[in-house]
Design a protein that fits this description.
CATH class: Mainly Beta
Low-confidence stretches: 1-12, 15-72, 77-83
Largest sheet: 12 strands, antiparallel
Oligomer: single chain
Radius of gyration: 19 Å
Order of helices and strands: HEHHEEEEEEHEHHEEEEEE
CATH architecture: Clam
């Protein structure tokens, strides 16, 4: 069992490790798609984007995972330091009026730092890996900032993984590599090993998904977008703007669009076109879509957060295998 107080590393055979590597990858920023599971192009800039469709039939939608006790989402003041919400909204509104998405993201980063200590959500993920678009996966997530902890439970298309637990700094293998604890999907695999420890930045993990598990979350998404933007702006390559409004999971969002000279997987930039949905009230990136082309026809990655509960309260016992 790996918990918040455990540093145990469970070694496994190369065969089992290969079967379960996918668990620790691909859990990035969120990235999300308004039309879940589809890779259609967006409407032209400055035209309101169509309303989000519901998740595919058969996927359960609920207000919160059954194992989470959550405080009201509006109570952001229960975060680590509190914040002047009037000031935040004023700055955010000014950024939108001036079509300054960079300023909006910087306010979003500050709002997160000052207010968010944990959250739960359902994470919808679809990625292009080795040239092929994967099936959409649905994952229940518990996230905590201190210590940074991510527990994922696959509920739709688990493929090779049933659960995955990452606690920053609490699980390293004999080579000193940081690991996540993975429970494989499939009864036959679990007969060999009920849980295995996988390096989160290992070669197989990187070959299985676009992002490692420690790159998942609201904070990581904001930081990643800002970092790429800064590099592109220095080179004179950045085209970043606010293009409209939309809804994700029934909540209003402001839609940002970034265009860059994408040269493929080995190039300087991660995509040609990026669409980011910022929740208008929370100032959090609840959805992101990444494309290999300017027209938005070749999807690279799509991530969406639904059923979000901010500053969710859960016991340490839930964050263990």
């Amino acid at each position: 069992m790996l918990s918040l107080n455990s540093t145990t590393t469970v070694e496994c055979s190369p065969r089992v490790r290969a079967l379960t590597t996918v668990a620790v990858a691909g859990l990035s920023i969120l990235a999300g798609q308004r039309f879940i599971g589809r890779a259609h192009a967006e409407e032209p800039p400055r035209i309101r984007i169509a309303r989000q469709q519901k998740p595919p039939s058969g996927i359960r939608s609920r207000s919160q995972p059954a194992y989470v006790r959550a405080v009201p989402n509006a109570n952001l003041g229960s975060g680590r330091r509190g914040v002047d919400h009037t000031t935040v909204r004023t700055v955010a509104a000014a950024a939108m009026r001036q079509n300054d998405p960079g300023a909006l993201l910087r306010v979003a980063a500050e709002q997160y730092e000052q207010n968010i200590r944990s959250y739960s959500c359902t994470f919808w993920r679809q990625e292009r890996v080795r040239g092929e678009l994967t099936k959409q996966q649905g994952i229940e997530v518990l996230y905590r900032e201190a210590p940074r902890t991510i527990l994922m439970n696959w509920i739709v298309n688990p493929v090779q993984v049933k659960r995955c637990l990452y606690v920053a700094g609490h699980n390293r293998n004999k080579r000193g590599e940081e690991c996540a604890l993975v429970e494989p999907a499939g009864s036959l695999v679990r007969l060999i090993a009920s849980k295995v420890s996988i390096p989160i930045h290992g070669t197989r993990a990187r070959e299985s998904s676009r992002h490692a598990i420690d790159e998942f979350g609201f904070r990581a998404t904001i930081e990643r977008v800002l970092t790429v933007n800064q590099r592109a702006e220095r080179r004179g390559d950045l085209d970043f703007r606010i293009i409209g409004t939309d809804e994700i999971d029934g909540r209003a969002t402001t839609v940002l669009e970034r265009r860059l000279p994408y040269a493929g997987a080995g190039g300087d930039y991660p995509d040609a076109r990026l669409i980011v949905h910022i929740d208008t009230e929370w100032l959090l990136p609840v959805a992101v879509r990444s494309y290999a082309d300017a027209n938005g026809e070749q999807l690279l990655a799509s991530y969406t957060m639904t059923d979000v509960r901010l500053n969710a309260e859960f016991d340490d016992g839930l964050l263990e295998f």
